[in-house]
Design brief:
With about 675 residues, the chain is mainly beta. It is about 10% helix and about 40% strand.
């Protein structure tokens, strides 16, 4: 392997000071690879940088390469903190790739401007993430399978891409698979639905009792599994306009509800540096995780260095094959960022909107544009604060919030990621789940595990488990985590003679093993992230707190194959000492993972956590018992968390907000109904 013979990488404006003794890179088409500015060390790779990095890695490896990750490798925190606009820095990329036709990943660090691979690590037996190219290969293999064609024909289903929907799901554990389906293979389970016409909702027509196992390495069908015919439901159940009878309660009854900002928005966006009110942050994006918000500050005081949703898992509660294998890690196995929607003005995002595009890599190392991947806007948020008394007029202030959002379609589900930045210094995250439930046909004892949503169509109980990575930086990198429980002394005791007294008891979580924590509703438990070196006016450490109001316990037994893969979700909170390379809470390579990587492995080191650089990993989610109302398309249900300032300010930070009266508000005249 050598770096020789690689052409010079085109240097993007403000990127880095290039070496002098180099040749210019062969000119690339700006139509396909536009030159985008790089103005901050946290900026994602540009399309030119993505393709250049792929070229460097291909030349170094010498083999036909499939890419799982091509993304920016940011400089150390100290360099990012000390960086000033106009200063150069080394532009680096992190790459994870595979040799086509073989298992085993290769992770690389690439100096883009100097065209060098600085680090090259082999990870044997790792399996790549699922991609859209896999579906192309699956459909091609399915067309050539006579056994599959015969099984479909006897069910009255055509072997035609217009009428047959095939979806790949990771198989999870493979301990009970025959060796020829595991050794050297990357198997996926492929489930089937019938489509009556091009726009038909295929989830209304599950083909139960038939699926096949496909190997993504050899691109061959390993096994067609036909357990017997189950009638395929034929009744159409659609959600698109014009395909079903309209509801008697149409939104035509609504009058227009218009959101206007005639004087423009109150935020500024300089490339990817976003400023609003007293907030400042950098908006990044990755192929795997989607939105990554960096260097979050309030009044130029650091709060978080990095905030992102790092993983999610969707385990299903069905005991029989093949559905017992359904436990997809949507971020680690399928990717969130690569499945981001191109948002539509006026429907996905309403009001005065600013968009950010996202550039991600393809498996072949090309750059792909996701236009309008991130939506930025501000919205009214009701009452900020109010008080009335008899000595003067009431004082009331209106709140608004900054919203940074994206929407991701992973298979049958849509996930809306909404980050809210509040005027009082709070940070909220809301995950909105919508889309279509995963459906099956009638199975053994289906009534116990699910709900029949239409004739012959079943939706089974499942969970949506999310992990937020919160790299805390409250007034700087040296933070301490404190667990806060509300306690009460015994009734009639000296400290509680009347039985009404209760108080907060604080416990410092001094090391990683101590900081694997679960909620305790009996004690109203929350966690505080404080800087012992920064004090408020009362002499207490400045801090933020997190209350576990949306925690979900995995219902799979921890000792089960599914439970072992969900190991990090059996605690609500984990805290680790900062390590730039520890990014994925359940492990880096999630396909056929065993649950031994990620947080479980990192915290075994039991590193100290007091007055140091810490990363908080918070688990939250949805426990989804399927309802009839979830069919045929699910109304949004939401979960999330909030970080509240707790002694970060000396008083209400919004006292200086001026009174606001909306001159467009009117009183409804006459009878409104």
């Amino acid at each position: 392997m050598t770096n020789a013979g690689i052409g010079r990488v085109a240097v993007v404006a403000n990127q880095v000071n290039p070496p002098e003794q180099t040749k210019p890179l062969e000119k690339q088409s700006e139509k396909d690879h536009p030159v985008l500015p790089v103005t901050h060390p946290l900026d994602p790779l540009t399309p030119l940088e993505i393709t250049a990095t792929a070229k460097i890695v291909r030349a170094y490896s010498g083999f036909d390469t499939r890419f799982d990750a091509i993304e920016v490798l940011t400089p150390p925190k100290s360099q990012v903190r000390s960086w000033q606009p106009g200063l150069p820095w080394r532009r680096m990329a992190w790459v994870s790739c595979f040799k086509r036709g073989e298992l085993g990943a290769y992770n690389a660090q690439v100096d883009i401007a100097r065209e060098k691979v600085l680090q090259w690590d082999h990870v044997p037996d790792a399996r790549p993430m699922m991609t859209a190219m896999d579906i192309v290969n699956i459909r091609k293999a399915a067309q050539g399978s006579e056994k599959l064609r015969t099984a479909l024909t006897k069910r009255g289903v055509k072997m035609d891409t217009e009428y047959l929907q095939i979806e790949q799901w990771p198989v999870g554990h493979t301990h009970d698979f025959p060796n020829h389906q595991v050794s050297g293979c990357a198997p996926v389970a492929c489930y089937l639905w019938e489509r009556l016409h091009n726009l038909d909702n295929h989830y209304a027509h599950p083909i139960e009792g038939l699926h096949f196992i496909f190997d993504r390495i050899s691109c061959e069908i390993l096994e067609v599994v036909d357990t017997g015919e189950v009638p395929v439901p034929k009744s159409p159940v659609n959600y698109r306009p014009g395909l079903e009878s309209p509801s008697p309660h149409s939104t035509a009854e609504f009058k227009p509800l218009t959101i206007m900002q005639p004087d423009g928005v109150s935020f500024t966006l300089e490339n990817r540096l976003l400023k609003w009110y007293r907030w400042q942050m950098h908006i990044g994006f990755t192929y795997r995780e989607g939105i990554a918000i960096g260097d979050i500050r309030f009044d130029n005081r650091p709060v978080l260095y990095d905030a992102r949703i790092a993983e999610m898992a969707v385990p299903y509660g069905v005991p029989h094959e093949p559905h017992n294998r359904k436990c997809v890690f949507d971020i680690g196995e399928a990717g969130f960022g690569c499945n981001a929607n191109e948002l539509q003005l006026g429907c996905d995002c309403k009001g005065a909107i600013e968009y950010l595009d996202a550039w991600v890599h393809t498996p072949s190392g090309k750059a792909r544009l996701i236009k309008n991947a991130i939506c930025i806007h501000e919205e009214d948020c009701g009452m900020l604060w109010k008080h009335s008394d008899h000595r003067g007029p009431p004082e009331v202030r209106r709140a608004r919030r900054l919203v940074v959002s994206s929407i991701h379609t992973v298979g049958n589900y849509e996930y809306g990621c909404f980050w809210y930045f509040m005027m009082d210094g709070a940070i909220q995250f809301e995950m909105k789940a919508t889309g279509i439930i995963n459906t099956t046909g009638k199975t053994h004892n289906a009534e116990k595990w699910g709900v029949e949503v239409s004739s012959g169509v079943w939706g089974f109980i499942h969970q949506h488990l999310f992990t937020a990575k919160l790299d805390m930086a409250v007034d700087g990198e040296s933070n301490t985590v404190v667990e806060c429980d509300t306690l009460r002394d015994p009734l009639g005791s000296t400290e509680n003679p009347h039985g009404n007294a209760f108080y907060i008891h604080e416990t410092t979580l001094a090391s990683e093993k101590q900081a694997c924590r679960s909620r305790d509703n009996q004690k109203m438990r929350f966690w505080k992230f404080m800087n012992p070196n920064a004090k408020n006016s009362m002499g207490r450490p400045t801090a933020y707190k997190l209350e576990p109001v949306h925690s979900v316990t995995p219902m799979a037994w921890p000792e089960s194959s599914v439970g072992k893969r969900l190991a990090c979700y059996y605690k609500d909170l984990w805290v680790t000492a900062y390590d730039q390379h520890q990014r994925f809470p359940c492990g880096e390579f999630m396909n056929q993972s065993t649950g031994e990587g990620g947080l479980v492995a990192w915290t075994a080191a039991d590193r100290p956590l007091t007055n140091t650089d810490v990363v908080v990993w918070y688990n939250f989610g949805l426990h989804h018992a399927v309802r009839l109302e979830d069919w045929p398309v699910q109304p949004c249900v939401s979960t999330g968390f909030t970080l509240h300032p707790t002694g970060f300010f000396d008083q209400n930070p919004c006292l200086d907000v001026e009174p606001e009266k909306d001159l467009h508000s009117v009183k409804v005249k006459g009878h409104c109904c």
